[in-house]
């Protein structure tokens, strides 16, 4: 008890000294001649500045405190790992092994990295209960940040050896990547809220582990007599149904909106504003700049809305196989949402141009309320769908959740 109290006191002293380090350095540089007045002035300025920042932007204080706690925790972790590594081999393994297992289960790559840096032999630790190695645990618990550490290690051949090894239930790395239990669902929903992206993430995990598994081990059966592909199909049935239901509902709603925009754009195209010239049939307002803007915007709205309708129809008539959730369905949804947004924006521009052309009477101030009102639907749609669109683009066309091997080996 006394040691814990002393440790807590030391930690508080360290935190306090670090918090005040910038002020102390500034005071030391200023010298000692006008020490008293300058000290009080700087201290008061620092105090008032911190109070103003905390009052005006309260999130800055919270972020600063979290960053400091994280930094101090890492420093203490380095000290603890260094001291533990000096103990006997049996004691080191008794401390580091459960710590590694808990860190992987909770998704804390900093702890795993520091333990491996301090004690490289920890890379070969395995769970005594189920006979799984640490990176097999990372696969099972879907901890990509921990799994990516293997790319920073100079043990590529070691990875090929660890992944196919079987645990107590004869599950290899691909079986673990194919399995979706209740715990995996909780972790998956915490990181990816949409069912389609959850299914895509599961496929990405399975394909990545499949790349690292030798061909001879890809069709190995576990204790239940199932291959990795059979385990994947069996445990992902509910998620596939949920993703299919979400995709069809989204596609149906967006199809209705896109079809209405297409009908409006087509009606506006055949109904020329201002009428036509009886002699040559040309529009009377064709020389106006607003009319040219209307024509271009209306054509863009028509073509983009029809494209959006086609994409969403392809989604609704898809077979919804497992592999379709990796690229095919997300790509169609991305194209459909982008073209739908373009059609909405073009429709608003065309409507604004017609309002200015017919009722504006060449008055520039009319553009201000027209633009303001026309931007509301496009802004609302963008604000509601843009986060999902960005996340889906990054997940489908981005770098992915798995890193590449670094030039700087973590261990060697």
From TrEMBL:
Transmembrane regions listed in the UniProt entry: 250-270, 290-314, 334-359, 365-390
Membrane keyword on record: yes
PGG domain span: 245-357
Protein's UniProt keywords contain Nuclease: no
A Pfam family this chain is assigned to: PGG
Record's keyword terms, sorted: Membrane, Transmembrane, Transmembrane helix
Cellular component per GO, a single term: membrane
Name of the protein in its database record: PGG domain-containing protein
Source organism per UniProt: Rhododendron simsii
